[in-house]
């Protein structure tokens, strides 16, 4: 055997390491138990260079590479820390704006009904607004209120010069027409990016939306801040909702990825995800994406926020993503955790969109 080249490494598989090696989808089994596979991990993360490179092997079966295999572990994409950095940038910009033109950005949030998770999100948004210097305005309406009431509040926020962003917390009660409510938010204040005109512009080449939806924008921002190349890569989005999957696919396409969308009617989704260099999972199914669905070295963005019962936790549940983290982190090159991944980025992007809106309305740069 000649010396190992930079991108191909030959490993000997003995009885103790073969189990791990086969979990890496090693198609190219060589005779004598030698398994050949490419570097598992993309070099940009630097951390997971193979530890064992054999330049000369007389009896492959006598070598064990378990040390390398067991250390292969994805880089954690720390959304919480990136979100904190972004919030610091926003805080500085807001204080500059306030001192130079005396304007404080304002965000209005409309919450209808008594869903506990919605109430928690709205509370967190309010706290984050306060911490960066955005003034927040909150309206809470009962579950059984009329659609007209919601529309009236939207209209008054549309006309309120202190308000630069309006967010209607979703989902709305089922007796309301979500589309006509989202349509009523003036596009200049549509910091969620859910107005059909903003979505339409996102979908059109050569057009720019005024705002990009926060969760997909946060996913792309994480890829940028971790220097993940998107151009020309195979990206798979799992889920096609208006608020996450569909705009995430549009954004990836704008970044010159080759994009596939997997949804509930897709046949053999794992055959599609297995080709992906980048996966964005936004399904709402705990641990749906298994290790065997993932191409070695892929970058994984897990949007899913799924409560699963856990009596050892004070709240009686814990949150898990749509990707089986324990399996995926052994195969991917990088992965977002849940919690602490995309969730905090969604809030950071909302604050960023609100600042952008205030700057645009007041012609401040
Ligand atoms: N981190 C964050 O900031 C945010 C997290 N979330 C979380 O992200 C997840 C998705 O949210 P959201 O987009 O609103 O969810 P939706 O329920 O609106 O959409 C789910 C999508 O997943 C698809 N889907 C459902 N089951 C399967 C399956 N078995 N195989 C393949 N595709 C499937 C659906 O397909 P079809 O279209 O065919 O029905 C649909 O397109 C949830 O866990 C939610 O809590 C949401 C928003 C923000
Ligand atoms: N008009 C509208 N805009 C939204 O952006 C919107 C919405 N409606 N409806 C619901 C979804 C969901 N969503 C989340 C935001 C932050 C976290 C978040 O911060 N999560 C923390 C965990 C929070 C916890 O511990 O409960 C984390 O992942 O680390 C999660 C989910 C925004 N949404
Ligand atoms: Mg939804």
Automatic annotation (TrEMBL):
Catalytic activity as recorded in UniProt: (6R)-5,10-methylene-5,6,7,8-tetrahydrofolate + NADP(+) = (6R)-5,10-methenyltetrahydrofolate + NADPH; (6R)-5,10-methenyltetrahydrofolate + H2O = (6R)-10-formyltetrahydrofolate + H(+)
Positions of the Tetrahydrofolate dehydrogenase/cyclohydrolase NAD(P)-binding domain: 213-360
Domain of life: Eukaryota
InterPro entries the record matches: Aminoacid_DH-like_N_sf, NAD(P)-bd_dom_sf, THF_DH/CycHdrlase, THF_DH/CycHdrlase_cat_dom, THF_DH/CycHdrlase_CS, THF_DH/CycHdrlase_NAD-bd_dom
Positions of the Tetrahydrofolate dehydrogenase/cyclohydrolase catalytic domain: 77-192
Biological function: Catalyzes the oxidation of 5,10-methylenetetrahydrofolate to 5,10-methenyltetrahydrofolate and then the hydrolysis of 5,10-methenyltetrahydrofolate to 10-formyltetrahydrofolate.
HAMAP family to which the protein is assigned, alphabetical: THF_DHG_CYH
Family: Belongs to the tetrahydrofolate dehydrogenase/cyclohydrolase family.
Protein name: Uncharacterized protein
């Amino acid at each position: 055997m000649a010396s190992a080249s930079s991108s191909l490494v030959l490993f000997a598989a003995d009885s103790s390491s073969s189990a791990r090696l086969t979990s890496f989808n090693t198609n190219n089994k060589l005779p004598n138990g030698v398994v050949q596979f490419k570097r598992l991990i993309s070099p940009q993360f630097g951390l997971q260079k193979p530890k064992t490179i054999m330049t000369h092997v007389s009896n492959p079966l006598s070598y064990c590479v378990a040390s390398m295999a067991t250390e292969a572990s994805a880089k954690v994409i720390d959304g919480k820390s990136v979100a904190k950095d972004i919030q610091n940038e926003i805080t500085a910009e807001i204080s500059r704006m306030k001192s130079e033109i005396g304007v404080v950005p304002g965000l209005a949030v409309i919450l209808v009904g008594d869903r506990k998770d919605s109430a928690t999100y709205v509370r967190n948004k309010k706290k984050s607004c306060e911490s960066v210097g955005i003034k927040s305005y909150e309206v809470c309406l009962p579950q059984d209120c009329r659609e007209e009431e919601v529309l009236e509040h939207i209209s008054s926020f549309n006309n309120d010069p202190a308000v630069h962003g309006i967010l209607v917390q979703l989902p709305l009660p089922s007796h309301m027409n979500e589309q006509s409510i989202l349509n009523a938010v003036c596009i200049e204040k549509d910091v969620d990016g859910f107005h059909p005109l903003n979505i339409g512009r996102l979908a059109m080449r050569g057009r720019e939306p005024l705002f990009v939806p926060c969760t997909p924008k946060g996913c792309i921002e994480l890829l940028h801040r971790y220097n993940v190349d998107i151009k020309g890569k195979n990206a798979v989005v799992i889920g096609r909702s208006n608020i996450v999957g569909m705009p995430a696919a549009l954004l990836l396409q704008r970044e010159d990825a080759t994009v596939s969308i997997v949804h509930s009617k897709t046949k053999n989704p794992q055959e599609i995800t297995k080709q992906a260099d980048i996966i964005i999972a936004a399904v709402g199914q705990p641990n749906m994406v298994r290790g065997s669905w993932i191409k070695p070295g892929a970058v994984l963005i897990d949007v899913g926020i799924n409560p699963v019962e856990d009596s050892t936790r004070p709240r009686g549940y814990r949150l898990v993503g749509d990707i089986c983290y324990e399996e995926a982190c052994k195969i991917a090159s990088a992965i977002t955790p849940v919690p602490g991944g995309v969730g905090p980025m969604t809030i950071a992007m909302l604050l960023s969109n609100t600042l952008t809106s205030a700057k645009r309305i007041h012609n401040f740069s």
